[in-house]
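sry for the spam today, last one i promise. struct tokens for design, 337 residues
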């Protein structure tokens, strides 16, 4: 299991999303719906939340503002070095931009990134390759754009002046809102490329940073390592949900999830029983919640929705939905609208 999947995040990072939503007229209650995050939590500098809670907040933001083009990219530009506390200070105190980028990858779970970042140094230049595979499918493009935008913002802030990203590459075809991303990024993205990447010139990668301090770097490295341990979550139910919402999907079996959690299926089943739940119950809860959101906020066809929720066919989905709500999905959608 990836260590990133089990780490907690500072709740104050969620305030960035709420602030952006408020500019478009969406209140904090809408953003926090179903997250388990309270308004008072946002003012607690020491409060931590699970990635599952943060994903719920991301979903709420997307559902509340479906008409805003390049929303994910715009959100990413709201994060700066100081947003990330120790992790951001460690980057700022690095000797060169290259070292800052290496340190960013080493302690990436302390950021808010969901995508995997890895370093690339080849004939095309030096930079980050960004892999969105760990992200749930319905959030993948949004969070890829958010994380790459955050990366651009951090690189520009760390160097203070003069740096420019030479290439911003995405593997997907160009979306309708590609011009908005170009305007926000200050560079025209290249689409249908072999990898998602942010590429700099080697000269910029070797640029010395103005706040380099060797002693401070050693201190902050130690604190980053300590933070990684402190934020480790032991929430088994939350970790199961993260696997279901991630690359495995809601069609995953208990055996597949157990492999990802590095335990036997029997151990997983027994531990869930001690938590007074079952694997099937967790899957059903996630399907029910996601079905409600998709029916209320999208025009997705029922056969596509059934596939997204991990059902073999639309009839199976419809039977389950009637059991949950006493109506067919179509009737439910009509009533809510």
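last one done:
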């Amino acid at each position: 299991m990836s260590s990133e999947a089990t780490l907690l995040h500072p709740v104050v990072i969620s305030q960035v999303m709420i602030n952006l939503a408020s500019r478009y007229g969406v209140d904090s209650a809408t953003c926090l719906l179903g997250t388990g995050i309270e308004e008072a939590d946002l003012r607690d500098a020491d409060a931590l939340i699970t990635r599952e809670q943060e994903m719920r907040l991301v979903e709420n933001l997307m559902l509340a503002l479906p008409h805003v083009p390049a929303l994910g990219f715009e959100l990413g530009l709201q994060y700066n070095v100081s947003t990330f506390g120790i992790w951001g200070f460690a980057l700022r105190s690095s000797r060169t931009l290259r070292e800052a980028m290496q340190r960013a990858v080493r302690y990436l779970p302390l950021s808010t990134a969901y995508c995997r970042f890895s370093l690339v140094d080849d004939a095309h230049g030096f930079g980050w390759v960004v892999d969105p595979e760990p992200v749930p499918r319905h959030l993948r493009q949004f969070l890829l754009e958010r994380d790459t935008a955050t990366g651009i913002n951090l690189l520009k802030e760390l160097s203070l002046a003069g740096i420019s990203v030479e290439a911003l590459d995405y593997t997907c075809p160009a979306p309708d809102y590609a011009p908005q991303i170009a305007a926000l990024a200050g560079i025209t993205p290249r689409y249908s490329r072999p990898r998602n990447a942010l590429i700099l010139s080697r000269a910029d990668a070797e640029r010395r940073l103005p706040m380099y301090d060797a002693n401070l770097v050693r201190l902050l490295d130690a604190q980053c390592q300590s933070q990684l341990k402190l934020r480790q979550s032991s929430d088994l139910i939350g970790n199961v949900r993260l696997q279901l919402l991630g690359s495995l999907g809601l069609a995953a079996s208990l055996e597949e999830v157990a492999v990802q959690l590095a335990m036997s299926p029997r151990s997983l089943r027994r531990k869930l029983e001690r938590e007074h739940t079952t694997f099937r119950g967790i899957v059903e809860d996630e399907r029910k919640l996601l079905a409600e959101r998709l029916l209320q906020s999208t025009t997705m066809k029922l056969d596509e929705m059934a596939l997204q929720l991990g059902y073999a066919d639309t009839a199976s989905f419809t039977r389950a939905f009637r059991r949950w709500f006493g109506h067919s999905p179509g009737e439910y959608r009509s009533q809510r609208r």
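The beta strands are 9-10, 48-49, 116-122, 125-131, 167-169, 197-200. ok im logging off now
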